[in-house]
Design brief:
GO terms for molecular function: chitosanase activity. InterPro entries: Glyco_hydro_46, Lysozyme-like_dom_sf. One of its GO terms (cellular component) is extracellular region. This protein is of the alpha+beta class and about 280 residues long. About 30% of the residues lie in helices and about 20% in strands. It folds into 2 domains: about 90 residues, Immunoglobulin-like (Sandwich); about 170 residues, Chitosanase, subunit A, domain 1. It contains 6 helices and 11 strands. Strands 2, 4, 5, 6 and 8 form a 5-stranded antiparallel β-sheet that branches. The chain has a 3-stranded antiparallel β-sheet with strand order 1-7-3, with no helix packed on it. A 3-stranded antiparallel β-sheet has the order 9-10-11, covered by helices on one side. A hairpin with a 5-residue loop joins strand 10 and strand 11. Helix 2 crosses helix 3 and helix 3 crosses helix 5. The chain is globular and about 60 Å long. The protein starts with a strand and ends in a 10-residue tail after the last strand.
């Protein structure tokens, strides 16, 4: 007999503000399958964890609810555990602090340390190319200016500031917006009246990829762009699940780019990390 619907979890916004770009996760027993999720949500099941990421501009209004189902052939009852709900921000809260949370910033910097030093260890200092504002502050300022709200976009921008410097990133942004047809649009380029954040990040990463590919030295670091592209395709917008750099540029774009040779590490949202004993290169 095939799988049957065994249970569901309903999330409802009982607050007083709309919730923008939420993500939901919960754990189920082994053998349980996560349902596809409502329209506007993307499912990602990793082992016994059901994770759902919303489209970049999905907003949950006050008193609005969404129901997520899970399936199994077993007749044993169970209760989902470790239920977590997170969001970029309350959509109507204008004064919220911009930037990454402490844990998101730790993960983002650990990822950059792999590119810079082949280890995510906090004992290693990041070397920044920027000669203007400090890379983090500069990246968060640009993210706010262009309407970027997700941790993944901010992390990719932060890493670009560290590698390319302020002038290099501004050139990347100009090329990104030109390629997306919004070069003449005043900031922000991302939002209800402009691009989706998914389209913007895809364009930005492709421009950064091309910049590195054209550089005699930079081409050997091109795989650092692929990790952000993989997380974009997986919908890991708020870096709620572990990030692993088991991907090369050639895996994402089917071009014979050089292999950067970075050691594969697994970075967890809580700041811990490990070196996987085995892995398969993939952009999915």
């Amino acid at each position: 007999m095939g799988s049957e619907s065994w249970g569901s979890i309903t999330f409802k916004n009982t607050g007083t503000n709309d919730i923008q770009n939420p993500q939901i996760s919960f754990n189920v027993p082994s053998g349980v399958t996560c349902g596809e999720g409502p329209s506007g949500w993307t499912r990602l099941q990793g082992g016994t964890t059901c994770q759902y990421t919303s489209s970049s501009h999905l907003t949950i209004g006050v008193d609005t609810s969404y129901t997520f189902s899970y399936f199994t052939d077993s007749s044993t009852s169970f209760t989902a555990t470790q239920v977590q709900v997170s969001a970029v921000r309350c959509a109507s809260t204008a004064d919220e602090k911009e930037g990454l949370t402490a844990t998101q910033k730790t993960l983002a910097e650990a990822l950059t340390r792999i590119w810079e030093n082949n280890t995510p260890s906090l004992d290693v200092t990041l070397q920044a190319a920027s000669h203007g504002a400090l890379p983090y502050e500069a990246a968060m300022s640009e993210a706010k200016k262009w309407g970027l709200t997700t941790a993944l976009s901010k992390a990719a921008l932060y890493d670009a500031f560290i590698q390319h410097g302020e002038a290099g990133v501004r050139e990347l942004l100009q090329r990104t917006h030109a390629s997306l047809g919004v070069s003449g649009q005043a900031a922000p380029a991302v939002g209800p009246q402009g691009l989706s954040e998914d389209a913007w990040l895809r364009g930005f990463l492709e421009q950064r990829r091309d910049t590195l590919a054209a550089d005699p030295e930079g081409r050997y670091a091109i795989d650092r762009v692929a990790t952000y592209e993989k997380q974009r395709r997986r919908g890991n917008w708020e870096l709620l699940t572990a990030v692993q750099n088991d991907v090369r540029a050639r895996d994402c774009w089917n071009v014979a780019y050089p292999d950067s040779g970075f050691t594969v590490r697994k970075l967890n949202p809580d700041g811990s990390w490990s070196t996987p004993a085995s892995y398969l290169y993939s952009c999915r």
